[in-house]
């Protein structure tokens, strides 16, 4: 094997996975559109859409509550796009996600630190301490990288940040920037399901692939930086 061939092979494998994920997103969106019945859309149709400011406030309040309780944030973005379109739906979903983030962070930091620690130890096991150390060293950058990836637990990261008493502003800023790409992606999906827009589904797939690629690159940089710091420590 020639020098450098292994990293290149790894990059090609990562690119292939991103393309497969993007294709799966398009296929899944098309399937949902054909099925017609998407969970949550009946509630949106009956209680949220065409209700003006009241409907928007109810959507943000319910979205914040369910994301704070552990429901995937992408589902809130999807329903936001379905109910309000891409631009307004993204804004309202972002508000709901950030309120849910602050709620679960605040719970873990102020009221439920012992409970959060027990839950997180069961979920992450031996990976809890290294992840907490990386977050503490760079709360903004690490949070941004992790939020850009479509894997992991949103509520788990919120609870871990609160339990570790991370500074709220860097954590919240990293969360907001990291939430944005996938929020746009799933708002596009929601809009595409409602209006049968194939281009929204394709654009969502491209944006998701870009978001994941940036997240992986940032996470690699943070890990490499920590390795260099550790190797250079006296």
Automatic annotation (TrEMBL):
| Membrane topology note | Multi-pass membrane protein
Q: What is its main location?
A: membrane
Q: Which InterPro entries match?
A: TMEM64, VTT_dom
Enumerate the subcellular locations listed in this protein's record, separating them with semicolons: Cell membrane
Transmembrane segment boundaries? 12-32, 53-71, 83-110, 169-189, 201-219
**Which stretches make up the VTT domain?**
71-191
Q: Which GO terms describe its cellular component?
A: plasma membrane
Which UniProt key words apply to this protein?
Answer: Cell membrane, Membrane, Transmembrane, Transmembrane helix
Annotated family: Belongs to the TVP38/TMEM64 family.
Tell me the protein's name: TVP38/TMEM64 family membrane protein
Species source reads Falsiroseomonas bella
Identify the taxonomic lineage of the organism of origin. Bacteria, Pseudomonadati, Pseudomonadota, Alphaproteobacteria, Acetobacterales
